[in-house]
Amino acid sequence: MAYSGTTKKKYFQMKNFLLLLLLIGSLHASAQQINTKLKQQLDSIMQVDQELRKLFTSIPQEEKEVILEKFGYTAKDLEQKGWEIVAKQDTIHIHRVKEIISSYGYPGKSLVGTPTNKAAWYVIQHSNQLEKFFPLIQKAGEEKEIPMTLVATMEDRILMYRGEEQKYGTQLKSGVINDPETGERKWQFYFWPIRSPEKVNALREQVGFERSIEEYAESMNVTYKKLKLEDVK
């Protein structure tokens, strides 16, 4: 059966309209899956987590005072209490994140969107319960709820806390070490020893890191040195 030019035009217009409706419906369904209330809670948690840590960086004193005032502290409180201010808030956050995980599982991309899917990870990463939650973090990475780079970063921190070599070169420390280049024992920032330095860049690429260990070191203004565990103990 032959169609006139006008009929064909109406057919394609209707087809495009139906496709547009399907697309809008799909986007609407996706938006409905996001738990907006939970997202707002986690966004607030992540903001506080990151903001308080700025107090221990080289930001201007005026900016520190603004942050302190926001949370009900003074410059004197910071001088007297120091990291205790952050630790107190971390305790509150990990308690809330435990409640969220108990109710929803890991609050990943499909539940709260991005970058909110990183919020619970930050809280866990800053707690003393990494090993307890690592299987959950690993599962979230495998299911693409969080980037695998975060899984690798947490795994490295766990290994470092155990006194073992890290895999991906994500963990830096500062302290007195035996410098392998000079033979001197001195204070410096350094990369915690890496298990297989010759494979580290390939491993980094596998999990999604965009920079090599050398490029990462340069961005952190740290000289990358291949240390052994005996150098840092």
TrEMBL record:
Pfam families, per the entry: DUF6624
Signal peptide span: 1-31
Organism domain of life: Bacteria
UniProt entry keywords in alphabetical sequence: Signal
InterPro entries for this protein: DUF6624
Keyword Signal recorded: yes
Protein's UniProt name: Uncharacterized protein
Organismal lineage: Bacteria, Pseudomonadati, Bacteroidota, Flavobacteriia, Flavobacteriales
